[in-house]
Specification:
Mean pLDDT: 92
Structural class: alpha/beta
Strand order of the largest sheet: 3-2-1-4-5-6-7
Number of domains: 1
Low-confidence stretches: none
Largest sheet: 7 strands, parallel
Shape: globular
Oligomer: single chain
Number of strands: 7
CATH superfamily: NAD(P)-binding Rossmann-like Domain
Strand content: 5-15%
Distance between the termini: 46 Å
CATH topology: Rossmann fold
CATH architecture: 3-Layer(aba) Sandwich
Radius of gyration: 18 Å
Order of helices and strands: EHEHEHEHEHEHHE
Length: 256
């Protein structure tokens, strides 16, 4: 059995820690990377195809603090690549204290059109990869008294029409968060953030649909990537919080 770090009531210290963020090159992942880096963490930016964006983000952050970033490129559906992500973080910075499972596939799968390939991709990126990456990271996180944070979705709690497979995958990730919180306690805290309307899909979303979503959100406006990144930082530093799903959604999840 690996040595288990003792937990205390003191806040987790991000300054000097190392954080691996999957899908960290763009959009929400990049906001999380910037926020953790601003708190003093070294950041390992994972990407699959967005290598140019990952390297540009790393260069930006290196300009603020030299020697504080690394970029790793891997397909999270390739099981052999997952241990290498953890190994790369430890090799670069000597430790890994934070894992943020952010990378995610997202697209519609209306009933009647669902394919095995779509099932494998959506479940693979949103559930299978976070599970097996957590399993690879667990010994190191235990040694360091670390933190695991999953980015889930309010649609893992309330399904989105025409997105059945995605909703099922995120629901599974919510349960995985709770299961891992029990499996990895007391050394490792495991939590999740469930964003609401923060970033519209890159493929676009009809303006009328956007307006309807905002109108159904109690706070009456969309959030920002920084709202989610701030919640990730809070969960990193909250010493007595584990097994929780923090909805950062303007109240949308209570309004349906």
């Amino acid at each position: 059995m690996p040595a288990v770090a003792a937990r205390s009531s003191a806040p987790f210290e991000l300054n000097g820690a190392t954080a691996l963020v999957t899908g960290g090159a763009r959009r929400l992942g990049a906001a999380i990377v910037r926020t953790l880096h601003a708190a003093g963490a070294n950041v390992v930016i994972h990407c699959r195809r967005s290598l140019d964006a990952a390297q540009a983000l790393a260069a930006e952050l290196e300009g603020e603090r030299a020697g504080s970033t690394a970029v790793v490129s891997a397909d999270l559906l390739d099981m052999a690549a997952l241990p290498r992500l953890i190994d790369a973080a430890v090799a670069r910075f000597g430790a890994l204290q934070v894992l943020v499972n952010n990378a995610s596939s997202f697209y519609a799968t209306p009933l009647g059109t669902i394919s095995v390939a779509a099932w494998d991709d959506l479940l693979g990126t949103n559930l299978r990869a976070p599970l097996f990456l957590a399993q690879c990271a667990a010994p190191e996180l235990r040694r360091r008294g670390g933190v695991l944070i999953n980015i889930v979705d309010i649609h893992g709690l309330r399904p989105l029409r025409d997105y059945a497979v995605y909703s099922v995958a995120k629901a599974g990730l919510i349960m995985l968060t709770r299961a891992l919180a029990r499996e990895l306690a007391p050394a490792v805290r495991v939590n999740a953030v469930a964003p609401g309307p923060v970033l519209w899909p890159e493929a676009g979303l009809d303006a009328a649909v956007q307006s309807k979503i905002v109108a159904e959100t109690p706070l009456q406006h969309p959030g920002s990537p920084e709202d989610i990144a701030g919640a990730v930082r809070y969960l990193c530093e909250a010493p007595f919080v584990t097994g929780q799903v923090l909805a950062v959604d303007g109240g949308r999840s209570i309004a349906w």
